[in-house]
Amino acid sequence: MGDRVFLKVMAVTVIALVAALWLPGGQPPEEYKYLPWQIEVTPDGLSQVFGITLGKSTLDEVENHFQEPAEVSLFATDDGKRMVEAFFNTVTMSGFKAKVVATLGFSNEELQGMFDRGERISTLAQGKRKVMLSGDDLVRARNTPVVALTYLPRTDLAKSTVIKRFGEPAEKIMEADGKVEHWLYPDKGLDVVMDAEAREVLQYVAPKDFERLRRPLQAVGESANGS
C-alpha cells in the first residue's frame, strides 16, 4: 500500500513539473537550465543553447556535456550534398528526454575527402547514402565545432506553447505538402518545424548563419505557392 501511494505521489510530481515547464501559463523554476527556449545570442552573432556555443563547441565537448556518446556518420545525396552529423539517441536535460542531431562545420572540400575515404556506404531511401567515416576522420570530427543542432523532443508542443516560449515568429513558410510549416526566428537562429502529423522539431543555428537555413526553405515555400 505504501509503495502505491509513493508511486502516485511521484507521478503527480512529474506531471506538475512537465506542466510548469511546457504549458503556456507555467514558469520553470530558477534552477532549471538548458531548456529549449533558453537561447543566448552572443555579440559576435553566435548563440548558446543547451550549454553549447554553436560554431565554437566541438563534438568532443558536446559529448562530454551531454554525457552521451554520439553515432557519427556522413550523409550524401545524389545531387552532391554532403554533411557530417552526430546522432544522440537520448539526451536528458532538466528532466526532459530528447533525441539530438548535431551538424559539424566542415567545408565542401573536407566533406568530399571524407566521403572518398569512407569505410562503408549504405544506401538509404530517396537517393541518400550513409557513409561510415575512417578512424582518422572520426578523430577529426570530434575536434570539429558543431554548427547546428536539431532537437527532437518527446513532448508535443502546442502552437500556443511555442508562442509563449519564443514569441511570434518573424516568418512562416509552408512546405508543399501543406502539413509542415516552418516558424522562423532569425534573431534567435531558430526554426521550429510545426508538423500536423508528427511531433515538432527545433533547429538551431548561429543567428549570423541563419540565411543558410532560411534560403532553401524559401525555395520550398515558393514552390508550394506556385511561384
Summarize the topology.
Layout: H1 2-22, E1 39-41, E2 47-49, E3 52-53, H2 59-66, E4 71-77, E5 82-93, E6 96-104, H3 108-116, E7 120-123, E8 128-132, H4 135-142, E9 146-153, H5 159-166, E10 171-174, E11 180-185, E12 190-195, E13 201-205, H6 210-224
Antiparallel strand pairs: 1-2, 2-3, 4-5, 4-8, 5-6, 6-9, 7-8, 9-13, 10-11, 11-12, 12-13
Write up what this structure looks like:
By secondary structure, the protein is an alpha+beta fold. The protein has 2 domains: 48-147, no CATH class; 156-227, no CATH class. Helix content is 30%, strand content 33%. The chain has helices at residues 2-22, 59-66, 108-116, 135-142, 159-166, 210-224; strands at residues 39-41, 47-49, 52-53, 71-77, 82-93, 96-104, 120-123, 128-132, 146-153, 171-174, 180-185, 190-195, 201-205. The protein has a 10-stranded antiparallel β-sheet, sandwiched between helices. A 3-stranded antiparallel β-sheet has the order 1-2-3, with no helix packed on it. Strand 10 and strand 11 form a beta hairpin. It is globular. The chain starts with a helix and ends with a helix.
The tally of strands reads 13
Largest sheet: 10 strands, antiparallel
Ends apart, CA distance between termini: 66 Å
Counted by DSSP, the helix tally is 6
Strand order of the largest sheet: 7-8-4-5-6-9-13-12-11-10
Return residue spans where pLDDT drops below 50 for at least 5 consecutive residues: 1-25
Assembly state (oligomeric)? single chain
Q: Kindly report the average pLDDT value.
A: 85
Strand percent estimate: 25-35%
Question: How many structural domains are formed by the residues?
Answer: 2
Helix content: 25-40%
Structural class: alpha+beta
- Radius of gyration (CA) equals 19 Å
Question: What's the SSE pattern?
Answer: HEEEHEEEHEEHEHEEEEH
Give the overall shape, derived from the CA principal axes.
globular
